[in-house]
Design brief:
This protein is α+β, with helices and mostly antiparallel strands. The radius of gyration is 28 Å and the shape is globular. The termini are far apart.
């Protein structure tokens, strides 16, 4: 499907009309609102922007365009939603010619043929039989090996490459798919027929095909199973390519998605064997990140199917750290999170001979704060002063992240009872943690009925840019920005601002300006800007009231400039100390002048 046809469908269909077929939308300023169909709520926070042709729920955090909405409401995959909306719009879809579709399609074809080669090697060679014996010894069944299309890569330097060349692929295409690697950095640019420049990336390994949500083979994970010199990596994964982005792929999701959607639960495990073993044991909502730590993109993918996430990582220090990091990411993404506590030195794949035990552990997943408590008390002795302090430091840091004061109080009371330290003392320590957070300070959004708190300077810059575009006097407010010498830290936002500055000086209407930006900006950047603008309107309760928009804009300008002054002053103070140590009087004089100018600018803001 070419982008022009997608855009034609969007141009012919109005998002308000499409969504009105599912929801009772009511006008709210320049936008429309309704109770969210994807989670229970009393106060409508589901917002539709006819101007930007997008929707966003400020309760559960989900959003998108007409395609994502229909996919979620109808339980469709993209191709189904595409056909449905194309018919609704009266757009005739053109068939894609895969031979001419470009490099990505060629990579997928190389991987498909390579997967067949690896499967044949597992089934029909002596070395492959040893790999299969290992898999069967780990408890996997023939059926699981077949379902997940597991294979074996020969322990040879060019067998896979030669097989693919014989099937009509060029060395450059095979290298682009990641099946081969270059012997040196210049090999990537060498002539295609020089075989000495390339070698098989995967040699003597069990091969796990990595599939996207549509079932295309986008890459491979290769695992050692026989001990050699002990120096090779346990796993080797395909490099990123046009078809394979590790941060956006979850291993096993193509098999698990229906069960995840059905139960509203996704179980995240560590590796390929854990996923396959879990599915074999009947826990078919298990997936794993693909050769990388859990990412926000992967969480967005899971969010399409479920709002509850269960984490099951190894019990060692690395596994515990991965669990903590994943918890923070998942909570920020709006998931309800629980944790499976595994016995020491066990992972899900170890339970294939006792599937009921794994099912029981998954069903007994505990609350994240129970996990933090269990972990902290396992590591420290609560009977010693040092142990109590270590436990309190770790748990109060976790409690501080809880948004509800009532829940915070609940967990502080439990902590108080367990370490025999007064609640008042712990609450005082909790206040210190909140005030002393290393991250950017929380900045209250004045005038927002939601009481929303912006915790990230980059996010704040996004709202500031959106408010600039929304203000009636764009040219006048640009002069204020120039007067204060404000520069966006985010390079994308600065790029948008430069365009707005040039166009805004002509005092164009906001609608015209957004149309200009749509033509100029990369599609992803424009979508990001559109979503930020919608959020800004929601949080600041901006409709058509120019006075409220201007007030919010000026407030954010002062806060952002003030923050930049603080950062610059701290940097200059360090520079002055270094210059004094080096007795560089010229630099001291220059830095002192800059420090005075920054202080004056900040003082001017406060007045």
């Amino acid at each position: 499907m070419v982008d022009s046809q997608l855009q034609e469908i969007k141009d012919r269909l109005d998002i308000v009309e499409v969504l009105s077929g599912y929801l009772r939308l009511s006008k709210a300023g320049r936008n429309f609102k309704a109770p969210c169909p994807f989670h229970n709520e009393k106060t409508p926070s589901f917002t539709v922007s006819p101007e930007r042709q997008i929707w966003h729920c400020f309760g559960c955090g989900q959003g998108g365009d007409i395609f994502t909405f229909v996919m979620k409401m109808e339980g469709m995959e993209f191709p189904e939603a595409l056909r449905y909306l194309a018919e609704k719009a009266g757009v005739e879809l053109k068939r894609v010619n895969y031979e001419a579709a470009g490099a990505k399609a060629k990579i997928l074809e190389v991987n498909r043929v390579a997967k067949n080669f690896y499967q044949e090697q597992l089934a029909k060679t002596e070395a492959g039989s040893l790999a299969k014996k290992y898999l069967l010894g780990r408890g996997l069944t023939e059926e699981s090996i077949g379902n997940f299309e597991i294979g074996y890569s020969p322990d040879a330097w060019n067998d896979a490459e030669n097989f693919l060349i014989a099937r009509g692929f060029t060395r450059k295409e095979i290298f682009s798919a990641g099946i081969t690697a270059a012997r040196d950095k210049d090999s990537r640019f060498s002539s295609d027929q020089n075989s000495e420049n390339y070698y098989d990336r995967f040699r003597g390994r069990i091969m796990f095909p990595i599939l996207d949500i549509s079932g295309h083979t986008v890459g491979f994970g290769g695992r050692t199973f026989a001990r050699k010199d002990g120096q090779e990596a346990k796993y080797v994964n395909s490099p990123e390519s046009l078809a394979y982005s590790k941060s956006r792929i979850l291993y096993g999701l193509n098999f698990a998605r229906e069960q995840i959607r059905k139960t509203n639960n996704c179980i995240l495990v560590e590796g390929y064997m854990d996923v396959i073993g879990s599915h074999q044991m009947g826990v078919s909502s298990a997936v794993a990140s693909s050769g990388t730590a859990l990412t926000s993109e992967q969480l967005k993918l899971i969010k399409r199917y479920a709002s509850r996430l269960i984490l099951s990582f190894d019990g060692d220090d690395a596994g515990q750290e991965a669990t903590r990091r994943s918890i923070d990411l998942a909570i920020f993404a709006g998931f309800s999170v629980k944790v499976v506590i595994l016995p020491a030195e066990k992972d899900p794949a170890d339970f294939v001979d006792n599937p009921d035990e794994w099912k029981k552990l998954a069903a007994q997943a505990i609350d994240i704060n129970d996990f933090y408590f269990k972990n902290a008390f396992n590591k420290n002795d609560a009977n010693t002063l040092e142990g109590k302090k270590a436990i309190a430091d770790e748990l109060l840091g976790a409690i501080a992240k809880i948004p509800s004061s009532i829940e915070q109080s609940h967990w502080v009371k439990i902590l108080s009872d367990k370490i025999n330290v007064g609640e008042k003392v712990l609450l005082e320590e909790l206040k210190k943690i909140k005030l002393g957070k290393k991250s950017a300070p929380e900045i209250s959004v004045n005038g927002a009925g939601s009481g929303f708190l912006v915790k990230n300077t980059e996010e704040l810059e996004g709202y500031f840019l959106a408010l600039l575009i929304a203000t009636p006097d764009i040219a006048g407010n640009i002069k204020k920005i120039e007067e204060y010498g404000f520069v966006f830290n985010n390079s994308d936002f600065q790029k948008v601002y430069e365009i707005v500055r040039l166009r805004g000086e002509e005092c164009l209407r906001k609608e015209d300006l957004m149309l200009d930006l749509k033509k100029i900006l990369a599609p992803e950047l424009f979508r990001n800007l559109s979503e930020i603008s919608l959020k800004a309107e929601y949080y600041y309760e901006i409709g058509n009231e120019s006075e409220k928009t201007n007030k919010a804009f000026e407030e954010l300008l002062k806060r952002l400039v003030s923050k930049q002054c603080e950062v610059k002053q701290k940097t200059l103070e360090k520079d002055i100390k270094i210059a004094e140590k080096n007795k560089d009087h010229e630099l001291i004089k220059l830095f002192m002048k800059e420090l005075a100018e920054s202080s004056q600018k900040k003082e001017k803001l406060t007045k």
